Amino acid sequence: MGRPMSFTLYNAPQSTCSQRVRFVLNAKKIPFAEIKLDLLAGDQLKPDYLALNPNGVVPTLDHDGAIVIDSSVIIEYLDEVVPIPESFTPRDPVTRARMRALMRFIDEMPAAAVRVPTFNLAFLPRFAAMSEEEFLAFAESKPLRKEFMLTMGRKGFPQKEMDAATQRLRRTYERMDSEIESSGGPWLLGEEISLADIALMPAIVRMADLGQETAWQDLPRVERWYDAIRAHPAFRPTYYPGSLLTERFPHLRSRL
User: Fold this and answer.
1) Are 75 and 111 within one domain?
2) Which residue of 4, 93, 139, 181 is most buried, as measured by CB atoms within 10 A?
3) What is the pTM of this model?
4) Nearest 10 degrees: CA dihedral of 64, 68, 74, 76?
């Protein structure tokens, strides 16, 4: 018997990418140490963290000293190194390829689009309170998100950007609906939940947290998918208190 594996997750409660990884860890019942970073305080840009993750984003997984970054990579890695008690990767190569294609779509579309309403609705008051010099310094310090921050500016994304993000999210709900119809559901690839469902989950939960559940109410298959992911045993420990934006930013609750 080898010694037990040790996992440490550097993450942030409200980070959608962090929530993916927490879900897999919880679903597999993997014990892990959690180091919570305050992203608005810039914890992810401190030298000791940048030494682990030069992108300056969360999450980062430390597995027995091996550092794994990028949430999509981390959840695939976890499924490889801890394949039991539950695997989220289809054994059939064709289905596995479909899952990976969906994961690329998810990172390109909803995972990126959801940042626009997130920043405009939740984070903007903090940036608006900064001076122009403070904001530029903050934006310049972000290795992976500098251009995104500079596009947003202290006054937020223009309505055109918000509309574009909403349209990209709508196409996501429609893609979900067609995938579930094709596979027979209830999950994207059929009867078994996969990494594609887990990768998608935080964006859908985020939009619901922002009061946008009506955006998919005309798609009952998507509604059932959302109910199913929330009923999964790993959901509640993943979304522990403080994981939703409305719990951290009281001004959001007044919008709902």
Assistant:
1) no
2) 139
3) 0.93
4) -80
Mean pLDDT of 69-83: 98
Domain CATH number, residue 102: 1.20.1050.10
| Residue 57 domain flag | yes
Position 137 scores a pLDDT of: 87
Edge-to-edge strands, sheet with 60-63: 33-36, 7-11, 60-63, 66-69
Residue-wise pLDDT tens digits, 207-220: 999 999 999 999 99
For 220-227, the CB contacts below 8 A with 24+ separation are 221/176, 221/177, 221/180, 221/181, 221/185, 222/173, 222/176, 222/177, 222/180, 224/185, 224/186, 225/176, 225/180, 225/185, 225/186, 225/187, 225/188, 225/197
Domain count, the chain: 2
Domain endpoint, select from 81, 113, 145: 81
Q: Look up the domain containing 110 and give its range.
A: 93-253
pLDDT digits (tens, 9 = 90+) for 47-59: 999 999 999 999 9
Q: Which segments of the chain are extended strands (E)? A: 7-11, 33-36, 60-63, 66-69
